[in-house]
Specification:
By secondary structure, this protein is mostly beta strands. The chain contains one helix and eleven strands. Strands 2, 4, 5, 6, 9, 10 and 11 form a seven-stranded mixed beta sheet that branches. Strands 1-3-8-7 form a four-stranded antiparallel beta sheet, with no helix packed on it. The longest helix is centred in the last third of the chain and has 6 residues.
Length: 127
């Protein structure tokens, strides 16, 4: 069974940091594009960052310089390090994995039925 499980969300003050994890099971994550998406209440899901098997990355403009996507192949886990968090970053964050998309396509098409989706983790940014 292909599965992704996110963790690491929580409540953080503006300017703070969180590191989200996306643990994969049932398939080798390093063969897939990893995507991080978010959805705030009343808003559409949006692509935040994507990482290809070749190490190429894509970031939404508003998170460039603040967020870093990575993976640990030995742990079969992807990560999203989020620094300098802003209230507008608050959302449910999801990770997904796809074997046949480019990072540009995946991050700009957030509602596509990708191979595997996680259940989401809540990020709240508030003082």
């Amino acid at each position: 069974q292909l599965r992704l499980v996110e963790s690491g969300g929580g409540l953080v003050q503006p300017g703070g940091s969180l590191k989200l994890s996306c643990s994969a099971s049932g398939f080798p994550l390093d063969d897939f594009v990893i995507g991080w998406f978010r959805q705030a209440p009343g808003k559409e899901r949006e692509g935040v960052s994507c990482l290809g098997p070749d190490g190429n990355t894509f970031y939404k403009d508003s998170v460039k310089g603040r967020f870093t996507i990575s993976r640990d192949n030995a742990k079969n886990t992807g990560y999203l390090q989020m620094n300098s968090l802003k209230p507008e970053d608050a959302a449910v964050y999801y990770c997904a994995a796809e074997g046949r998309a480019t990072i540009q396509y995946m991050c700009t098409n957030p509602v596509t039925e990708y191979d595997v989706w996680g259940q989401g983790t809540q990020v709240t940014v508030s003082s």
